[in-house]
Amino acid sequence: MTLAYDPYQRACPSRQFLKSLGDLWTVLILGALRDAGEPLRFKDISQRVDGISTKMLTQTLRAFERDGLVIRVQYAEVPPRVTYELSEVGHDLALALQQVEKWATSHMDEVLAARVAHEQG
């Protein structure tokens, strides 16, 4: 039996997950992994997502791994090598968020104009 999740209900666990989806870093990290088309190392993700701190990238990747969005592979090499790639469910989410990303970039002129108009009052 599948539970019926309803994010409009306060106790629904989907609320916490949806909250994390509204985070800038979530959208950008998933997008970087989606666009890469191959597993990426931590440094590669960090370079792609300009401005993210090491701490925030680490926390976000751990949360993604916990939620089953990324697959983390640690290789038994010296020096150690770790890669990250989207799981199937992570890829599906990254594609959905790509639409939000496209909307933001294609409508940014309107958003900025609305902000100016609002401030001018």
Automatic annotation (TrEMBL):
InterPro entries named in the record: HTH_HxlR (IPR002577), WH-like_DNA-bd_sf (IPR036388), WH_DNA-bd_sf (IPR036390)
Keyword list, A-Z: DNA-binding, Transcription, Transcription regulation
UniProt GO MF annotations: DNA binding
Domain HTH hxlR-type: 12-112
Transcription regulation among keywords: yes
Pfam families, per database record: HxlR
PANTHER family assigned: HTH-TYPE TRANSCRIPTIONAL REGULATOR YODB, TRANSCRIPTIONAL REGULATOR, MARR FAMILY
Protein name: HxlR family transcriptional regulator
Annotated source species: Corynebacterium vitaeruminis DSM 20294
